[in-house]
Known about the structure:
It is a single chain. The protein is an alpha/beta fold and 309 residues long. The chain contains 15 helices and 5 strands. It has a 5-stranded parallel β-sheet, sandwiched between helices. Helix 7 (126-134) crosses helix 8. The chain is globular. The mean pLDDT is 93.
Amino acid sequence: MTSTYGELRAQLASLTTEAFRPELADIDRLPTLEIARLMNGEDETVPAAVAAQLPAIAAAVDGTAERMARGGRLIYAGAGTAGRLGVLDASECPPTFNTEPSEVLGLIAGGPTAMVEAVEGAEDSKELAAVDLDGLELTADDTVVGISASGRTPYAVGAVEHARGLGALTIGLSCNADSALAAAADHGIEVVTGPELLTGSTRLKAGTAQKLVLNMISTITMIRLGKTYGNLMVDVRASNDKLRARSRRIVALATGASDEEIESALEATDGEVKNAILVILSGVDASTASTLLARASGHLRAALSATQE
């Protein structure tokens, strides 16, 4: 057992995200404002680290969008903070882009309980990742994103290895260079954020970097799938008063129509923002708008072009 821990300690010591920073050894003696300034300064370095990986991110997004256009799913897999960030990103896609809950999924080592409390040992199992993915009946049109700050977490690496073996597209998102996770994936994204303010606390800069990249993966994929019109969320699901108000504002911004026209179009299209915009801009009825959008695979611009032919 001692030798096992010794080997793991050596692995951790070699990781940039785990490096000790002696210049911060007295941070607990500093005034609160100074600690806040230090943290803020650390966070300012994250966007540059993400920028260095933009070509890799773009390639991963294009591959994901291609598969999702064929009916594939986007599946995140991680442990601890990384897993929670994946679940968070997945859970925000249905209200933002009107996706089905089954289209973008987040797997976290240890299951839903691990969202709010640690499930000891779950992250150490490659086999658990394979079981979780098999439960989803993975196909070659799916995309699996393994997320791990260290780039060595067995659950994330196991998920990518298992998914790739089944022909799915795989993405490995880590915050260390030359990681096992990136090596196992079709697309390796290594956002090297450097040592943390608190040694090894990768919910800080590494977590921020992962959140930024996951935002890009899901958002740009949805843009490629026609879930937006310009920078308007035309597939928003109006499930509460705020979103119902937002849907009307989106129709107004896209069309310049009066409130009366907007209400009439939304009523005719059962509240579907994209359909209502097409009704107003093209003059077609709700049924025709629905047909045109179906033929255009949901792309509003293409549907609008079809009405002008």
